[in-house]
Amino acid sequence: MTKKEVIFFDAGAYGPYVKCELINDQLESEYGDFHGDKMLDLKVKSNEVKIISFWKKMDEINVWNWNKTYNDEMAITDGFTWEIKLRNRDGKSKYSSGYEKYPRNYKKFITAINKLFEIKIDFWD
After folding, report:
1. What is the DSSP string of 17-86?
2. Are strands 69-71 and 93-99 parallel, antiparallel or unpaired?
3. Which class for 109: exposed (0-12), middle (13-18), buried (19 or more C-beta within 10 A)?
4. Residue 118: pLDDT above 70?
5. Distance between CA 22 and CA 25 in Å, rounded?
6. Superfamily covering domain 6-117
7. DSSP secondary structure letter of residue 100
8. CB pairs under 8 A, 24+ apart, for 41-46?
9. CB of 17 closer than 8 Å to CB of 11
10. How confident is the model at residue 87 (pLDDT cuts 50, 70, 90)?
11. Dist. CA 22–CA 46, nearest whole Å
């Protein structure tokens, strides 16, 4: 039986933020700038080929083995936080979050999010 897919990514710091989510058949993303002003509010119809490609990329970067948390205890208090919630059609799921610390292949995840949601986010390098 096919499980309901979950694709959720939320990240931000003091000011800039991004939120990407699969809601029904829509890929919805929202982005705010360094002043916290909404700069982008985009809804794109999900595409079967792109969704399958996204899940293949998640397998390739092995997001399923990411730690539950990545926290830099020595980081400044208004640093960058992020959170993902994923569940593919087979029911494989992952919840992971972090504060000023990332898995080694985090940028590959961001590239996959950009491609799927047709956006360009990169303010957390």
Report:
1. EEEEEEETTEEEEEEE-TT--EEEEEEEE--HHHHHHHHHHHHHTTGGGS-SEEE-TTS-TT--EEEEEE
2. parallel
3. buried
4. yes
5. 7
6. Mago nashi (3.30.1560.10)
7. S
8. 42/117, 42/118, 42/119, 44/117, 44/118, 46/22
9. yes
10. very high
11. 8
- Give the type of residue at 41: D
Q: What CA–CA distance (Å, rounded) separates 62 from 117?
A: 20
How far is it, in rounded angstroms, from Cα 62 to Cα 94?
A: 10
Q: Which uninterrupted H or E stretch holds 87?
A: strand 81-87
- Per-residue tokens: 5: 């897919």
Mean pLDDT (the chain, rounded): 87
